[in-house]
Specification:
Elements: E1 3-6, E2 10-11, E3 21-23, E4 40-43, E5 71-75, E6 78-81, E7 100-102, E8 105-107, H1 109-116, E9 131-134, E10 137-140, E11 158-161, E12 164-167, H2 168-174, E13 177-178, E14 185-186, E15 193-197, E16 200-203, E17 220-224, E18 227-229, H3 231-234
Antiparallel strand pairs: 1-17, 2-15, 3-9, 4-5, 5-6, 7-8, 9-10, 11-12, 13-14, 15-16, 17-18
GO cellular component, one term: nucleus
Keywords: LIM domain, Metal-binding, Repeat, Zinc, Zinc-finger
Pfam families: LIM
Length: about 240
């Protein structure tokens, strides 16, 4: 039996298109190189007003400890006994080698990277060069891929489902509703509008009379079995 209806286009619902932001590597201001980033090694003199920056954690137990021949390191107004100028993570002596300061603590480059650099959500490894962020999670660019086809998404249109990223093609193939006319995906990723009647959906441009192909958006129509007809064409069809 034929049934009459009226259709209006509506925006396709579902996950919105995502945008991954570029992630910059962490700043490493303490690498030696420029003169003002070099720790200066010198002797501690008995007349020096010296106090080790580690204070209670000083290796000698007394941050003001001095003895003949002792050496100190200075960096931007902070002082350490030579024996105290060590990586706070691995305890390796730094001397006049490369280091990264964090407050009054110093770290060797490897430990700083392991301790403070962001880690990729997918592989859990440290991100040392430019990566991307999505929903506040950091990723290596090469790790931010479609869950299904593994295409890199750093500069592509994508969406997500259950927290997993998908390219537009895979999302449409696996999750989107299907147009009753062309069978194509209705994703909403490009602002697509669609029509729905009972259990069926159509792209806006596919919602046309099955006989004369005239558009049916905002028009009356007649559902005749699997066919959608304009009122004029429906007159030529049997009603049962």
């Amino acid at each position: 039996m034929a049934a009459c209806g009226f259709a209006a286009a509506q925006p396709a619902t579902g996950p919105k298109c995502g945008v991954a932001q570029q992630l910059h590597p962490p700043a490493t201001p303490g690498f030696t190189g420029p003169p003002d980033n070099v720790a200066i090694l010198s002797h501690v003199h008995q007349t020096d007003d010296f106090e080790c920056s580690l204070r209670a954690r000083c290796a000698y137990g007394d941050p003001t400890h001095k003895e003949p021949g002792m050496k100190k390191l200075e960096f931007k107004g902070f002082f350490w006994h030579e024996q105290c100028f060590r990586c706070m993570a691995c305890n390796a002596p730094i001397g006049v080698g490369a280091f990264i300061p964090r407050g009054q603590e110093v770290f060797c480059p490897n430990c700083y990277e392991e301790t403070f650099s962001p880690r990729c959500r997918k592989c859990s490894r440290v991100i040392t060069s430019f990566g991307v962020t999505y929903k506040n999670d950091p990723w290596h660019r090469e790790c931010f891929t479609c869950t299904t086809c593994h295409k890199m998404l750093a500069e592509e249109r994508f969406t997500s489902k259950n927290g997993q990223p998908f390219c537009a093609s895979c999302f449409g193939q696996h999750f989107a509703r299907r147009c009753a006319a062309c069978g194509g995906a209705i994703t909403g990723l490009t602002g697509t509008k669609y029509c729905v009647y009972e259990e069926r959906s159509w792209h806006r441009e596919c919602f046309v009379c099955s006989a004369c192909k005239s558009p049916l958006i905002a028009c009356g129509f007649v559902a005749h079995g699997a066919h959608i007809l304009c009122p004029s064409c429906a007159k030529d069809r049997p009603t049962c």
